[in-house]
Amino acid sequence: MQFPQTLDLPQLPLFEAFLAQPAIPLLTQALDSPWLDEAEAFSEISLRGAANHCLNLLAPMLRELSEETDARWLTLIAPPGSLTQAWLRDAGLNRERILLLQPRGEQSALELTCEALRLGRSHTVVSWLQLDRSARARLAAAARQGGAQSLNVRLG
């Protein structure tokens, strides 16, 4: 048995037809969700392996961020010891646009990262922290407040 088809309407393959129907309600829900804002303000990358290899994978991303047209800083909070000024130079990063910050006294790296994000003097603040859900939410909120981007790097 054949069903009549109009020639004006394209026919979707079977799986696309099933997937296409709920996409509009899901997209509407996602746009109304505060989670979307958190995803835009906070990003995390996980790298595993030897420290040198991890830094070599991270170098192009940091290089791009250091060349950002935004007049604000790229701020690195408590980077690993292998990320030195010499490494920044050798990786081709614009060191004139980078701040390297270490927490002092009783201040934690998380607190310093939140403060740097809230101040808004950096377009991106990169941290090397082990984070739980509430810490991620704190970083996202601070980033939104300062109009910045938070990037956390987890080294395994």
Automatic annotation (TrEMBL):
InterPro entries: Cell_div_suppressor_SulA, P-loop_NTPase. GO terms for biological process: cell division; negative regulation of cell division; SOS response. It comes from the Bacteria. Keywords: Cell cycle, Cell division. This is SOS cell division inhibitor SulA. It comes from Pseudomonas kuykendallii.
